[in-house]
C-alpha cells in the first residue's frame, strides 16, 4: 500500500467526492459523515507520509515516488509522476487537517444542498493534493486548473450577496494565470534539450538565456494566484463572498501560487531567481504593505482577514527569494502557519455572522459578555495572525525577517509589517470584544463541538513553536539543498 | 476492407431508397421511421469505420486508388463526420418531430454524410471537387429547410450565394494546379510539382491560395466567416450542428490533403499567411462571441474561434505534431461543438426562445442537459483534463516547436478570453436563479445522448492515449 500512498492520497477524496452526491440522495447526514470519514482517513495518510519523511530526515528529496508512467505514450514527456518532499509535505498535512475541520464546522454553517457541497469540498481537496505532489509539469497543470471548478461552484452557489460576480472573477483571473504558466511549460519542453516535463529531470538544465523570460511568465502566473499586488483584486472578493468554511479552503489549501514560486521559479530557474531576487522581494514587500495598510481601513472583519492573508503572502515571497536557508524555510513555515491562523480567523468570522448576523466591526459590540467562548477564540486567533510568540506564526515571520536581513539590510523594513497587523487587529478586538453590549443583547455563544473544532487549529501552531523541529526538520534539508543550487552572489 | 467504396454504397443506397421506403412502409406505421432508419445506417457505418481504425478489420487497397485513398487520415475524419451525423440524426428524432417531409430531410442528411466521407478519402482534385459539391448542395437545402421561416430563407440564400462563389474559386485553384502539372491526382501533382520550374512558383502559390480560399468558406476562417452566424441562426439547429461540427472538418481534411502536396515548395510565405489567418480567426471569433445575446450566434462565433486554433495545425504544416493536433482537435471539437449545439437546440425549442435567458437556473429543471453542456463548454475552453485541453495543448506545443511562440501565446490568451463567455453560460446555469417558473420537461432520450457524448469528452480527456495514438498513426502514415 505504501507503494501507492500518494495515488491514494490524491484519488481517495476524488472518488469519495463523486460518491458523496449519490449518497446524499439517500441520507444527508450519511453524506456528511461519509465525507468526514474520508477526510479523517486522508489526514491519517497525510500524517503517516509526513512523519515518515520527518523521521528519516529526507525532506530534501522526493519520497514515496511513483512513476514516471507514460500518460500518453505517443507524446514523450507527459507522465504520471508524483512524490512528496519538504515543500509539499507540510502543505499536504495542513490541507488534510483543514479539510477535516471544514467538514466538521460546515454542519452549522451550510444548510443548502449539502450533498453537492461535501462532494465539491472533497473533490477540491483531492485536486489540491494532486497539484502539491505532481512532479510532472503537465500533471501539475491539469490539477491546478481543474481545481478551479469546484471552487467556482462553491463560491457561486453557497456564497454571499455578490457571489456571482466573485465566482466568475475568480474563475477568469485564475484561469488566465494558467495561460502564462502553460506557455512557460511548453517553452521549457521544446527549448530545453531532452523534451521532458518531469521536474526532477529539468533541475539545472534550463539555459541561462531562457531563464529571465520564463521567470517573467512564472511571475505573472503564480503572482496572480499568490496573489501579489497588482494581481490581487480577485482574492478579497472571492474570500469575502465565499461561505466561511470555503474561505478557509481558499486561504488554507489554495496555495498553488506560493507553492509554484518555490517549486518552479526557485528550483528550475536558480540563476534568474538569484539575479532578480530583489524584484521578487520588492513585489513581496509591496504586497505586504498593501495588504496590511488596506486591511487597516476595513469595516468588515472578513475583508480585514482576507487582506491580512495577502499581507502574509508577501512574507512567503520575500522569504523564498532571500536566497538564505532561514528565508526559504521560513517561507514554507509561513505557508503552513498561515493556513492554520488565517483558517481559524475565517472560520470565526463565519460563526460571528451566525451569532450576530453581520461582520461589521462598528455594529458588533460586547462579545466578551454575550459570547465569552467565541471572544476567547477570536483573541487567540488574532494573536496567531499577528505572530505573537504564543504561536509559531511568530517563528515563521522571524525566520523570514532573519533571512531577508541576511540577504540585505534594507529589507529589514518588513519588521514594520507585524506591527501594523497587531495595530488593526487590536483595534478590532477592542471595538468588538472589550465594549459594553447593547442592552437588548442576550447571551448567545457557540456550542461545544464547534469550540473544540476551532481549538484544533491552534494545535499545529503551538506544537511547532514548542518543537520547531517538527516543521524545520522537514524544510531545512530542502532549503539547504536549494541554497546550494543558487549561484553565489 | 475497402471502407470508402463500401460506405459510398451504403450511404448513397440508403439516401436514394429512403424516400421510397418511407412512402412504402414508414408513414403508415410510424412517423419517425426515417429517423431511426438513418440513425441505424449511420451507426452501422460508424461501427465499420471504428473496426477498421482499430485494425479489427484489416484495411485493404482501395478499388479506385487514384480517386480514393483508403488511409488512416481518411478513417479519422470518417469517424468524426459519422459521429456527428449520428448525433444529428438521433437528436433530430425529437427536434424535427413536427416538421413535414422528414424523409427528405434524412435523405439529404445521408447525402451530406456521403459527401463528407468521400472528401475524407479523396486522392484526386476532381474527387475533392465532386465530393465538395455533394456535401454542399444538400446543406443549402437543409439550411432553408423551414421554407415558411424568413430567417431560414435568408440564411439559405446567403449560404448558397457564398457557397457558389467559393466553389468557383476552388475550381479555379484546381484548374491552375492542373495547368501546372497536367494531372488532378494528388500524388502525381506532388511528383510533378517537385520538378517545377522556379519561375512558375508565383503561379503555384496563387493556385494553392485560391484553393484554400475556396475551402475557407466551409472552414469558417476569417475573412470568409461572415455568413456563419446568420446561417447557423436561421437554419434548424441540428443542421447548424452538422455544418459546424461536420462539414467544417471535411473542409479541413481537404485543406490538409491539398496543402500537404504543395507545401514543401512554398513554405515560408504560406506559414506567415496561415499564422496570421489563424490569429485573426480566433481573436475575432472570441471577441464577437463575448457580446452575443443569442446562444446559437454565440456558438457560431465560438466555432469560428475554434477554427482559428485548428489553423495553427495548418500554419506549422510540415510538422507532424501540428497535424496530429489538428486531427485531434477536429475530433474533440466535433464532439464538443455537437453537444453544445444540440443542447442549445433542445433548450431553445423547449423555451421557444434563442436568447440566453432560459439558461438562468437551468441546472434545476434540466440537470442532465446542463451537465452535458457544461462539460462541452469547458472542454471548448480547454479546461483540463477534458479532451479539448489535450488537443489545444498539442497545437500550442506544435506552434512553439515551429518557432511561432507568439501564436501559441495568442492562442492561450484566446483560451482565457473564451472562458469569459463559456464560463458565463455555466454561471447562468448553476449559479443564477431561474427567472421564470415555467415548468419544462427534459426529453430523456435526447438528454442521454448528450450525456453519452459528454462522457466521451471526459473519458478521452482522462485517458487520451488511444485517440492520440490513432491520430498520430494517421499523420505518420500520411506524412508528406
By DSSP (H or I, 4+ residues per run), the number of helices of chain A equals 23
Order of helices and strands of chain A: HHEEHHHHHHHHHHHHHHHHHHHHH
Discrete helix count of chain B = 19
Summarize the main sheet of chain A.
2 strands, antiparallel
Q: Give the DSSP E fraction of chain B (strand runs of 2 or more residues).
A: under 5%
Describe this protein with a few key phrases.
heterodimer, A: 489 residues, mainly alpha, two-stranded antiparallel ribbon, 23 helices, B: 480 residues, 19 helices, 0% strand, globular
Describe this structure in words.
The complex is a heterodimer of chains A (489) and B (480). Chain A has a domain at 276-489. In chain A, 73% of the residues lie in helices and 3% in strands. Chain A is built from 23 helices and two strands. Chain A has helices at 5-26, 28-56, 88-109, 114-133, 137-146, 148-158, 163-191, 199-202, 211-225, 234-241, 244-252, 256-268, 270-275, 277-296, 301-320, 325-356, 367-370, 372-386, 393-407, 416-432, 448-456, 458-466, 469-485, and strands spanning 63-70, 79-84. Chain A has a two-stranded antiparallel sheet. In chain A, helix 4 (114-133) runs antiparallel to helix 5 (137-146) and helix 7 (163-191) runs antiparallel to helix 9 (211-225). The N and C termini of chain A lie far apart (45 Å). The model of chain A has no long low-confidence stretch (mean pLDDT 91). Chain B is an all-alpha fold. Chain B has a domain at 268-480. Chain B has helices spanning 3-29, 33-53, 72-95, 102-121, 125-143, 150-181, 186-194, 201-219, 227-234, 237-262, 267-290, 295-315, 320-351, 362-365, 367-381, 387-401, 405-430, 444-462, 465-478. In chain B, helix 3 packs antiparallel against helix 10 (237-262) and helix 15 (367-381) packs antiparallel against helix 17. Chain B is globular and about 70 Å long. The model of chain B has no long low-confidence stretch (mean pLDDT 88). The interface between A and B is medium-sized, with 34 and 33 residues.
Amino acid at each position: 500500500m505504501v507503494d501507492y500512498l500518494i495515488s491514494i492520497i490524491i484519488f481517495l477524496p476524488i472518488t469519495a467526492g463523486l460518491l458523496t452526491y449519490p449518497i446524499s440522495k439517500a441520507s444527508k447526514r450519511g453524506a456528511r459523515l461519509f465525507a468526514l470519514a474520508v477526510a479523517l482517513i486522508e489526514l491519517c495518510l497525510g500524517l503517516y507520509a509526513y512523519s515518515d519523511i520527518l523521521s528519516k530526515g529526507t525532506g530534501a528529496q522526493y519520497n514515496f515516488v511513483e512513476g514516471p508512467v507514460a500518460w500518453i505514450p505517443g507524446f514523450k514527456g507527459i507522465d504520471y509522476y508524483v512524490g512528496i518532499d519538504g515543500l509539499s509535505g507540510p502543505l499536504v498535512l495542513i490541507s488534510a487537517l483543514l479539510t477535516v475541520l471544514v467538514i466538521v464546522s460546515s454542519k452549522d454553517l451550510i444548510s443548502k444542498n449539502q450533498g453537492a457541497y461535501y462532494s465539491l469540498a472533497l473533490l477540491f481537496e483531492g485536486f489540491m493534493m494532486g497539484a502539491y505532489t505532481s512532479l510532472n509539469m503537465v500533471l501539475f497543470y491539469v490539477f491546478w486548473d481543474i481545481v478551479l471548478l469546484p471552487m467556482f461552484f462553491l463560491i457561486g452557489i453557497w456564497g454571499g450577496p455578490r457571489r456571482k460576480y466573485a465566482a466568475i472573477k475568480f474563475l477568469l483571473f485564475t484561469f488566465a494565470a494558467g495561460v502564462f504558466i502553460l506557455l512557460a511549460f511548453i517553452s521549457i519542453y521544446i527549448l530545453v534539450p531532452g523534451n521532458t516535463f518531469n521536474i526532477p529531470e529539468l533541475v539545472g538544465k534550463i539555459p541561462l538565456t531562457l531563464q529571465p523570460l520564463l521567470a517573467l511568465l512564472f511571475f505573472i502566473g503564480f503572482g496572480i494566484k499568490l496573489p501579489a499586488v497588482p494581481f490581487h483584486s480577485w482574492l478579497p472578493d472571492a474570500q469575502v463572498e465565499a461561505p466561511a468554511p470555503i474561505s478557509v479552503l481558499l486561504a488554507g489549501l489554495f496555495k498553488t501560487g506560493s507553492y509554484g514560486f518555490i517549486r518552479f521559479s526557485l528550483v528550475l530557474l536558480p540563476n534568474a531567481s538569484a539575479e532578480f531576487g530583489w524584484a521578487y522581494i520588492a513585489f513581496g514587500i509591496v504586497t505586504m504593505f498593501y495588504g496590511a495598510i488596506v486591511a487597516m481601513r476595513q469595516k468588515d472583519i472578513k475583508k480585514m482577514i482576507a487582506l491580512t492573508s495577502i499581507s502574509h503572502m508577501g512574507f512567503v515571497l520575500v522569504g523564498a527569494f532571500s536566497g538564505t536557508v532561514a528565508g526559504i524555510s521560513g517561507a514554507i513555515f509561513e505557508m503552513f502557519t498561515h493556513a492554520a491562523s488565517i483558517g481559524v480567523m475565517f472560520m470565526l468570522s463565519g460563526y460571528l455572522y451566525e451569532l450576530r448576523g453581520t461582520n461589521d466591526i462598528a455594529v458588533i459590540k460586547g462579545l466578551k459578555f454575550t459570547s465569552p467562548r467565541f471572544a476567547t477564540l477570536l483573541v487567540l486567533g488574532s494573536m496567531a495572525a499577528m505572530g505573537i510568540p504564543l504561536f509559531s506564526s511568530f517563528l515563521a515571520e522571524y525566520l523570514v525577517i532573519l533571512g531577508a536581513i541576511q540577504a540585505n539590510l534594507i529589507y529589514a523594513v518588513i519588521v514594520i509589517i507585524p506591527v501594523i497587523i497587531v495595530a488593526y487587529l487590536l483595534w478590532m478586538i477592542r471595538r468588538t470584544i472589550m465594549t459594553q453590549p447593547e442592552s437588548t443583547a442576550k447571551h448567545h455563544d457557540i456550542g461545544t463541538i464547534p469550540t473544540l473544532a476551532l481549538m484544533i487549529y491552534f494545535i499545529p501552531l503551538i506544537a511547532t513553536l514548542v518543537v520547531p523541529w517538527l516543521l524545520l526538520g522537514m524544510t531545512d534539508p530542502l532549503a539547504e539543498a536549494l541554497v546550494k543550487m543558487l549561484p553565489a552572489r | 476492407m475497402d471502407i470508402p467504396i463500401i460506405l459510398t454504397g451504403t450511404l448513397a443506397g440508403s439516401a436514394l431508397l429512403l424516400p421510397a421506403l418511407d412512402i412504402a412502409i414508414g408513414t403508415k406505421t410510424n412517423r419517425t421511421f426515417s429517423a431511426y432508419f438513418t440513425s441505424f445506417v449511420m451507426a452501422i457505418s460508424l461501427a465499420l469505420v471504428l473496426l477498421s481504425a482499430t485494425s479489427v478489420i484489416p484495411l485493404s487497397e482501395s478499388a479506385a486508388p487514384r480517386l480514393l485513398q483508403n488511409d488512416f487520415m481518411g478513417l479519422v475524419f470518417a469517424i468524426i463526420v459519422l459521429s456527428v451525423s449520428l448525433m444529428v440524426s438521433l437528436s433530430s428524432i425529437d427536434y424535427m418531430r413536427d416538421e413535414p417531409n422528414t424523409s427528405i430531410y434524412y435523405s439529404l442528411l445521408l447525402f451530406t454524410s456521403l459527401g463528407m466521407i468521400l472528401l475524407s478519402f479523396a486522392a484526386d482534385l476532381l474527387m475533392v471537387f465532386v465530393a465538395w459539391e455533394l456535401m454542399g448542395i444538400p446543406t443549402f437545402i437543409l439550411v432553408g429547410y423551414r421554407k415558411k421561416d424568413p430567417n431560414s430563407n435568408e440564411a439559405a440564400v446567403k449560404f448558397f450565394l457564398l457557397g457558389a462563389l467559393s466553389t468557383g474559386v476552388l475550381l479555379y485553384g484546381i484548374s491552375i494546379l492542373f495547368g501546372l502539372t497536367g494531372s488532378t491526382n494528388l500524388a502525381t501533382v506532388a511528383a510533378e510539382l517537385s520538378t517545377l520550374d522556379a519561375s512558375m512558383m508565383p503561379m503555384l502559390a496563387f493556385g494553392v491560395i485560391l484553393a484554400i480560399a475556396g475551402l475557407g468558406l466551409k472552414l469558417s476562417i476569417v475573412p470568409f466567416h461572415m455568413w456563419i452566424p446568420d446561417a447557423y441562426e436561421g437554419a434548424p439547429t441540428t443542421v447548424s450542428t452538422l455544418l459546424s461540427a461536420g462539414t467544417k472538418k471535411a473542409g479541413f481534411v481537404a485543406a490538409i490533403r491539398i496543402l500537404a502536396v504543395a507545401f514543401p515548395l512554398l513554405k515560408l510565405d504560406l506559414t506567415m499567411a496561415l499564422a496570421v489567418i489563424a490569429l485573426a480567426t480566433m481573436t475575432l471569433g472570441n471577441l464577437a462571441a463575448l457580446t452575443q445575446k443569442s446562444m446559437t450566434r454565440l456558438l457560431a462565433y465560438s466555432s469560428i474561434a475554434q477554427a482559428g486554433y485548428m489553423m495553427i495545425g495548418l500554419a506549422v504544416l510540415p510538422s507532424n505534431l501540428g497535424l496530429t493536433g489538428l486531427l485531434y482537435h477536429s475530433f474533440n471539437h466535433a464532439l464538443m461543438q455537437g453537444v453544445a449545439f444540440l443542447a442549445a437546440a433542445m433548450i431553445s425549442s423547449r423555451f421557444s426562445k434563442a436568447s440566453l435567458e432560459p439558461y438562468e437556473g437551468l441546472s434545476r429543471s434540466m440537470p442532465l442537459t446542463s451537465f452535458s453542456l457544461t462539460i462541452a463548454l469547458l472542454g471548448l475552453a480547454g479546461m483540463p483534463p477534458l479532451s479539448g485541453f489535450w488537443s489545444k495543448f498539442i497545437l500550442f506545443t506544435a506552434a512553439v516547436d515551429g518557432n511561432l511562440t507568439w501564436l501559441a501565446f495568442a492562442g492561450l490568451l484566446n483560451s482565457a478570453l473564451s472562458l469569459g463567455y463559456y464560463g458565463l453560460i455555466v454561471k447562468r446555469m448553476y449559479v443564477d436563479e431561474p427567472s421564470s417558473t415555467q415548468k419544462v420537461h427534459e426529453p430523456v432520450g435526447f438528454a442521454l445522448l448528450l450525456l453519452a457524448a459528454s462522457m466521451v469528452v471526459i473519458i478521452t480527456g482522462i485517458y487520451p492515449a488511444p485517440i492520440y495514438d490513432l491520430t498520430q498513426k494517421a499523420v505518420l502514415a500520411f506524412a508528406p
